[in-house]
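Blackboard transcription, Thursday session:
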Amino acid sequence: DAGVIQSPRHEVTEMGQEVTLRCKPISGHDYLFWYRQTMMRGLELLIYFNNNVPIDDSGMPEDRFSAKMPNASFSTLKIQPSEPRDSAVYFCASRRTGSGNTIYFGEGSWLTVV
Amino acid sequence: TQLLEQSPQFLSIQEGENLTVYCNSSSVFSSLQWYRQEPGEGPVLLVTVVTGGEVKKLKRLTFQFGDARKDSSLHITAAQPGDTGLYLCAGYPSGTYKYIFGTGTRLKVLA
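(Written on the board underneath:)
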């Protein structure tokens, strides 16, 4: 079975540009999580969805960040405009209700804003 | 506010030594999980502990969940260079579906 798929794996962009990160959760999983990882702050939960509905976005740093989940198999995290401090690895993860607490992570999207 | 604090933050030891990593919180967790993350990859689940006082063993790794379900520990016996990585505890504080991670422990085992 395919795992959580993220794209792009790596992106370098200039400050002020729009960045869109994409995620395809594991089929049948009803929870989707977006995390950001930096050396300074570790793994931070940005937002999570249940059945495509955003449940908690209190971790989204500011209005420049937005996330959507138009259907059960696709989610996006958008940063507009991007800033150098947004440079981080962004992970998408998913889980299925009833499978215990096991969460499966994608390989991450490495974002560098210059 | 960081609900899950790990210690130590960094650890560099020689092959063959033993070590313990701690994960502490003031909140009760319904369960806690431990992950290992290697450079360029996402975290990979090692174990889930559910019951207060539970002890689980995974080869040379021993995981314990505190009686009050507020803390956990990971003990590695006879560490090997292949154990090198970032170790993370994680879980859902009771009453929430917000899955949070600890601050992490970066382990380096020298040959």
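Lecturer's comment: The first strand of chain B starts at residue 5 and ends at 7.
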